[in-house]
Amino acid sequence: MAHHHHHKHDHTDTDIDWAEMASLLESQAELFTPLYERALGWLAKEVTEPGLIVDAGSGPGVISCLFAEVFEGARIVAVDGSAPLLERAADRAARHGAADRFGTLVGELPEVLDELEYPADLLWASRSVHHLGDQSAALAAYARRLAPGGTLAVMEGGLPARFLPRDIGIGRPGLQARVDAVEDEWFTRMRAELPGAVAHTEDWQALLTAAGLHHARSRTFLLDLPAPVTDRARAYVVATLGRVRERLADGLDAEDRATLDRLLDPDDAASLHHRPDVFVLAAHTVHTAVRPV
Predict the structure, then answer these.
(1) What are the percentages of helix, strand and coil residues in the chain, rounded to 5?
(2) At 117, is the secondary structure helix, strand, or coil?
(3) Strand partners for 75
(4) SS3 22
(5) How far apart are CA 237 and CA 159, in angstroms?
(6) Torsion of CA 257, 130, 65, 94, to 10 degrees
(7) DSSP string covering 31-58
(8) DSSP character at residue 209
(9) What is the pLDDT of residue 54?
(10) CA 127, 61, 36, 110 torsion: positive or negative?
(11) Closest Cα partner for 140 from 219, 220, 191, 200?
(12) CA distance 26 to 1
């Protein structure tokens, strides 16, 4: 879930400091690598031998470097509004032996794409378009940066991640469903507070078609890490629900806040740190469309 992109505006609870989240973004993207590998494997069948791949809203570059592995002849450009995240992306590319065909571009999306030297054969945007005020205008700008026959691939939507059974033996059953509702409210506020925010029906195939692209289609990819999870997956769950407790707990009732506190307390035997029933199950959807030749 490599986000991506940050707009400066008056500080509210929807502000996100992407650079501060760098290590979390990186570890999360690494955990989700099996899902991304399946998505990129599917794209490799759709897009033959691209010369230039642009990762718009690349974050720390985990997916950018996967593109370098899957498309061995392609040049990769990671684009993001955060210079510290792009430094991580470049370092990762060097560690993976792809530095000679890996570049970065820092600036505000989508405008910064006008600085690209060549049109993209594949432009990828992973869970970053929803951080742009006018998503439809952003997709149209992305489409203009495609070469004829080039593909725009947008990862947006899917299903909320699940980490725990419905009844965890403490508190009221269904905690994650209630957390999802609070997160949905936060997401709506975040979108409304973006500069130039425009409300759109989140029909991504229709939005891609409105951007002048053809052959819009969608496919969903699953991450299934069953219990008992690895230490890395457990740490991701702890970090994710820790952020919920920190930012969103005011939207939950006292009982649910108390349950979250127990889940996050390493000294509690019922916490995420010790539970044998923690898992990670998530579904992300990729929407693609092609620029007419």
Answers:
(1) 40, 20, 35
(2) coil
(3) 52
(4) helix
(5) 16
(6) -80
(7) HTHHHHHHHHHHHHHHS-S-SEEEEET-
(8) H
(9) 98
(10) positive
(11) 200
(12) 9
- Residue 293 has a CB neighbour count (10 Å cut-off) of 8
Whether 59 and 25 have beta carbons less than 8 Å apart is answered as yes
CATH superfamily of 22-290: Vaccinia Virus protein VP39 (3.40.50.150)
Pick from 130, 142, 250, 101: nearest CA to 199: 130
Q: What is the full per-residue pLDDT of the chain (293 aa) written as tens digits? A: 334 333 333 335 555 666 677 788 898 899 999 999 999 999 999 898 999 999 999 999 999 999 999 999 999 999 999 999 999 999 999 999 999 999 999 999 999 999 999 999 999 999 999 999 999 999 999 999 999 999 999 999 999 999 999 999 999 999 999 999 999 999 999 999 999 999 999 999 999 999 999 999 999 999 999 999 999 999 999 999 999 999 888 999 999 999 999 999 999 999 999 999 999 999 999 999 999 99
What does pTM read for this prediction? 0.91
Q: Parse the chain into domains and list their residue ranges.
A: 22-290
42 close to 153: Cβ distance less than 8 angstroms = no
Per-residue tokens: 149? 């026959």
The tokens describing 226, both together, are: 């069953």
- The residue whose two tokens read 């049109």 is 119
At residue 10, the pLDDT reads 37
DSSP per residue over 124-154, as a string? Answer: EEES-GGGSS-HHHHHHHHHHTEEEEEEEEE
Q: Bridge-partner residues for 72, per DSSP?
A: none
Q: Are 290 and 142 in contact (CB under 8 A)?
A: no
Name the residue among 49, 77, 72 with its Cα closest to residue 61.
77
